[in-house]
């Protein structure tokens, strides 16, 4: 190559680089590419001449890739000048298109959903509810017995390789301390090479004991279970509560997410039965347009990932349930005898009903449940869950004089009367469809938990003093030098939102490197190695024994299964998908929204950072196990960015004001004793320490402490 062409090329590259550096999104792209190259330079051991030639070729490659991306018209060119943000108040909460086919009274359904979400009687132990992990700003601020040793770890070939060694605290039931964080410690937080210690544990939420479900006892909040030894979560051979494998995200504003859970397994399409939407070909409910002729039907509700998500924890053997329980049996707990007649097995045990929220006080000024409160007595007055379901849902989903019979092999039949066989279970229509009611009601309640009155939102509405001068500078860093808008885009502050997917598609090509296909809104930012938790790189488990179809929708498209399992054709990408490509998925997690982030520590999917300052340090150094570009923020700029993040707090959330008010709750908070000694309750389980969360009415309270505060 002659000198003039080289000079021309260098001038072109320099000009293009200057142009790209003028925009936040392109700055993120360019820095990412350069960082990738820099972190690979150590591998080369050439002479100085070859090294310089290699650097020149890499620079040329960067320019070519960027130019190709711009020409291709993908996210780089589309977001050169980001659209001005609008307040979250301007964004409609996503709703199913066909909700009216199921719900007859939305207000009644929200009331049902709030009761179910907070009711401790839902759990097998009669003490745990959905709210047990989502009571503080929609997340969890507990700090004792909150460590998982890394049970989601896999080998490089994808086979399970759970880590059972507790690095943080040494044993279960440990009381976390501020000095335990971050889990990846550096002597200089700006320099990723100054490693002091590294721990792969996860700070998460304690759930259920290791038990096996036997039966429900209608009228009793506790299920009949048998205790089983827990080889990991025990202290001196006494079982303690199992801790989840990922940090608990907030449910507030989760209604905007296209998919839910960190790994996206809660599908946008709700099938009425489980989290897996159209992926499960066997999911069906029963509909009785004629009470005498109920039929098995498949249903599909879009924009319903919260309903899909709601069906995971109640049957999880590590969260709310003993191993082996079904939703029909949860329904049995809350049922009644019919016309005084006892039906066999499960239904025959329905001696009396459980009062909704029967163990918890409901504030008389609760914004949803106040009129039904028995204050100062616990529970709701003159209400049963069966009545609440009938108030909320259309009768074809609960009214029938037939039973649904399930035999030992799982075969289902509709029968006129019970066969009184111990080999089958019979369910009323209300019981059989309990998962449908549970999922939709909780989704409708959680869809009211929208935090959209932050200083940031008021600033976007034109109140120029809503953010302090320091926070406004932090906002500029967030949108520019900090590169935060690479993942936290739009009014929802996440690329995983329904509106982002509608705009950019469910899958797209990465704007750099090989431009591999990836799921929109999911990123591997190098918090931990992908083998510690594959996340989106895992599978849905529907085949049993940990096997199933990929969770990654990009991988489904490459396998030709996108339309079959997701119900629509894959987006048309440029260049078109090629089955020989590799999708970005391993270690990728859903980008969370950031409102109220001040209140929801610990942070990231592993809960490995305890403060926003530690989070900003992580991004400033370019992450710990990835290729994020270093930001080179000054100490003052870091403080400005943290100040801006605190400007994302809705004070209604901080002080539990409506719609964030709630019933009383008692949450398990570790076990009396420590990591070496607990008290046996007589059944092989440790006694619980219970933390009371008092009932709060619509006007709010004084707030509760943040994590380790």
Structure description:
By secondary structure, this protein is of the alpha+beta class. 25% of the residues lie in helices and 9% in strands. The chain is built from 19 helices and 19 strands. It has helices spanning 3-21, 24-38, 48-72, 75-78, 106-118, 305-310, 327-333, 345-348, 385-392, 429-432, 434-446, 455-460, 469-479, 498-504, 553-559, 562-566, 612-620, 635-646, 651-654; strands spanning 147-148, 184-186, 195-198, 202-203, 211-215, 224-227, 234-235, 238-239, 285-287, 295-297, 403-407, 412-415, 424-427, 507-509, 517-519, 522-523, 589-590, 665-668, 690-693. Strands 12-11-13 form a 3-stranded antiparallel sheet. The longest helix has 25 residues, at 48-72. Residues 1-30, 33-81, 317-322 and 333-352 have low confidence and may be disordered.
